[in-house]
Design goal:
This protein is of the alpha/beta class. Helices cover 50% and strands 10% of the residues. It has two domains: 79 residues; 128 residues, Response regulator (Rossmann fold, 3-Layer(aba) Sandwich). It has nine helices and five strands; from the N terminus they run ααααβαβαβαβαβα. Keywords: Phosphoprotein.
């Protein structure tokens, strides 16, 4: 399987298509969509004559239960990139299955927003619920990706409009390599709008609007409860019953 040189021109054509389809697999929630993406990946692996990827995909038929679409897509993409960089096929090493058991203690949260005021308001909203603890903050998308890799948060509260890399760019990378769940908190992601729809397609668990005016101090009163409800749903926690 390893050692045989692959056509460099074919690899250059193959990798962007593989990356795009792996992204669709990572974002797919329905089994039918997952199967379509896997079929497309099988065709790409066969066309590029990459035996290790073909074998890895054969092992997914029948589809395992439960199926970790995001983790599988990330592993397949990482291997494809390694093979493309090497110029020849390599053995595929499947990652160990990810534990789905809930972590003990509060959910670790990363808050991402280019506004320091908004980061504070989101942090204070979550501080009202002992189920959460904010462990890191980021002011732009690149910093967010670094914090995700370093801190492995269980929940990411993500703005969309940011410098360097926007929230949708963060979601595309997170869908392949990130951990935890994402709640979008943004005035740009109007529920039902194009940005919100794309965020949900990429795997965001919920979209919550900011109050009018990025620095409005009423977030804690008007939006804090909505943020906490969305955060609990995304983290797999039961809703808090009203007293």
């Amino acid at each position: 399987m390893s050692g045989t040189a692959l056509d460099p021109e074919l690899l250059a054509l193959f990798l962007p298509e593989w990356e795009a389809e792996a992204g669709r697999l990572a974002a797919a929630e329905e089994e039918a969509a997952q199967r379509r993406s896997l079929d497309s990946l099988r065709g790409l692996a066969a066309g590029a004559e990459i035996g290790s990827l073909r074998a890895a995909l054969r092992a997914l038929d029948p589809l395992p239960e439960p199926f970790d679409a995001k983790g599988t897509a990330g592993a397949l993409l990482a291997h494809a990139r390694t093979v493309a960089a090497a110029g020849h096929d390599l053995p595929f090493e499947a990652p160990p299955p990810e534990s789905r058991a809930p972590a003990a203690g509060p959910v670790r949260v990363l808050v991402v927003d280019d506004s320091a005021m908004m980061r504070r308001l989101v942090r204070e909203s979550l501080a009202a619920d002992p189920a959460f603890t904010v462990v890191a903050e980021a002011a732009d998308g690149r910093e967010a990706l670094a914090r995700i890799a370093e801190d492995s948060p269980g929940l990411i509260m993500l703005d969309i409009e940011m410098p360097v890399l926007d929230g949708l760019g963060v979601l595309r990378d997170w869908a392949l390599r990130g951990t935890g769940a994402v709640v979008v908190v943004s005035s740009a992601a109007v529920p039902g709008g194009e940005v919100a729809t794309e965020a949900r397609r990429l795997g965001a668990s919920a979209v919550v609007g900011k109050p009018s005016g990025a620095f409005s101090p009423d977030l804690g009163e008007r939006q804090g409860e909505a943020i906490r409800r969305a955060a609990r749903r995304a983290a797999g926690l039961p809703p808090v019953e009203a007293p």
